Amino acid sequence: MPSTQLLLVGTSKGLIVFEKREAAWTIKDVHFVGMPVALIYEDERTQTWWAGIAHRHWGQKLHYSNDQGKTWQAVPTPKYPKDTFVYPNRPATLKKIWVMQHAGPDKPGGLWLGTEPGGLFYSDNNGQSFELVEALWNHPSRQDQNQWFGAGRDFPFIHSIVIDPRDSDHVYIAVSCAGVFETKDAGTSWEPRNKGLIAAYLPNPAAEVGHDPHRMLLCPAEPDVIWQQNHCGIFRSTDAGLSWDNVTDSNGLADYGFALAVDHENPARAWVIPAISDEVRVAQDLALCVCVTEDGGKNWQALREGLPQNHSFDIVFRHSFCNAGDTLAFGSTTGNLFLSENNGQNWQCLSHNLPRIDSLIFTHS
Q: Taking Cα atoms as reference points, which of 156, 239, 163, 229 lies closest to residue 197?
């Protein structure tokens, strides 16, 4: 029996599962009704679904399902050791779970977890327990030099974890605000990788640490090509993060934003969703568009067909944009969900009536 394409939508009022049947997308299920689902992740090795709940009263909760949502199990959320401090006299406590990533096919029980206030956690037992990665937490740039800080939040947070598909010990993380860090020994040691980035808000815009990547992804077919949508523009690396090229749109449209999608086969193609800067955070000119480059960021094209062009207050956050093959989808803080099945050339609105959308992923039943 052929599989059915699914789109999992994490919203401020639950997890909504869309399915495609006979060329139409409809809602199949709703899970965690009324709960803010800030994280949705599928472990592609096991097809396990993970949901991170950001409850205002009860705090962070972490659930998984091995049967595509028919049943859910809770696991203990990670805890910072008692002797860890964000700042002097400020003990570290879990504020939010931002991102999850499996550790590679050769580490079947391995899961990475990025959190706020800037802690990276690792599990070697499929998420049943997590331990703080001390080497990153104790990095001199954070502990001694105070170069990690919050960006729109009170504390720094890890929102992107990228695994080199050729070597599972080779991992990148992105921190707002600190920048990109790399390990080649599965987390035992870490080095900043921010050469070429711009931090216009710092006294030294070319500082080694203190940058604000909003989202970071690599091209699976050519893993040395890494993209990031940054607070200060769009950047691309072709040398595995050793240096970054500023590929911000010279015409000024593809610039500030949060969301990023990259082609899984073509390292020269990527999409971003531009917005007015951090003070405003709405679609540019109140006209929603997606920008695509086909040449590694040398040129950008605005894709608008099917998207609202009048009085659009939509903004799309980090994890609310995803792609699978020729299909792309994104959701906004105003509850609009859009989908394209031809690489963004045309868009359809799947719903105007959802709560704020915080995360999206494609999968199959």
A: 229
Delineate the domains of the chain, giving CATH numbers in brackets.
70-364 (2.130.10.10)
For residue 198, what are its two tokens?
């711009």
SS3 content of the chain, % helix, strand, coil (to 5): 5, 45, 55
Contact 62, 74 (CB under 8 A): yes
**Per-residue model confidence (pLDDT) at position 2:** 65
pLDDT tens string 329-362: 999 999 999 999 999 999 999 999 999 999 999 9
User: What average pLDDT does the segment 27-50 reach?
Assistant: 97
pLDDT in tens, 120-172: 999 999 999 999 999 999 999 998 888 999 988 999 999 999 999 999 999 99
Can you tell me which residue has the tokens 């992923």?
361
Q: Considering Cα of 31, then 36, then 42, then 46, what sign does the dihedral take?
A: negative
SS3 224: strand
Q: How far apart are CA 46 and CA 166, in angstroms?
A: 19
Closest CA to 302 of 321, 287, 324: 287
Half-sphere exposure of 204 (CA within 13 A, CB side): 9
Apex 88 CA angle, 83 and 91, nearest 5: 40
CA angle 294/299/300 to nearest 5° reads: 80
The whole-angstrom separation of Cα 88 and Cα 18 is: 46
Task: Record the pTM.
Answer: 0.97
Tokens for 18, please give them. 């869309």
| Signed CA dihedral, 151, 62, 220, 349: sign only | negative
Which of 132, 92, 140 shows the shortest CA–CA distance to 112?
132
- 99 burial via Cβ count (<10 Å: 0-12, 13-18, 19+): buried
How many H helices and E strands in the chain? 2, 30
